[in-house]
């Protein structure tokens, strides 16, 4: 269902098109003392984005590769392709660092600690670099992708991560490196 969004003194409100109230009528009713209307029509964003919670969940399931995809997708939705490219570069470095740390951890190290750490870091970074835009997007009537799409991206990120780990292990075995 389409919605027209109106802003009244900075506050957003959804008015469904079904409503018989005309925008021009609202402008006349809510004139301020300078003769200017307090209402502004705001166009709802067409692009969908991933919420902070979705990025956390997708990152937990799919690792840093899924996180990079979700970050870059949001930056592209916010029309910031340079930041999307930068997100992919950071993803590549972060993936190598996380793999390196994972190989150096002792065998008895709890396996859930590392994902919790990088998921929490991802959540903090989403809030810092996209939090305001996500909030503005949602306040303007924008929508987010659903659970199943995020789940699928997480599974794809997990598959890519497992493939990379297999290739690294296979390469080390071919080189004669003992990884016990």
How much of the polypeptide forms β-strand, as a percent range?
5-15%
Q: Percent range for helical residues?
A: 55-70%
- Total number of helices: 6
The N- and C-terminal alpha carbons lie at a distance of: 58 Å
Shape: elongated
What is the overall pLDDT average?
Answer: 83
Low-confidence stretches: 7-20
Radius of gyration: 23 Å
Tally of DSSP β-strands: 3
Q: Determine the structural class based on helices, strands and strand pairing.
A: mainly alpha
Order of helix and strand elements from N to C terminus? EEHEHHHHH
**Strands across the major sheet, in which order?**
2-1-3
Main sheet record: 3 strands, antiparallel
What layout of secondary structure does this protein have?
Blueprint: E1 3-8, E2 11-16, H1 23-29, E3 39-42, H2 52-77, H3 81-104, H4 113-129, H5 131-139, H6 147-174
Antiparallel strand pairs: 1-2, 1-3
Helix pairs in contact: 2-3, 2-4, 2-6
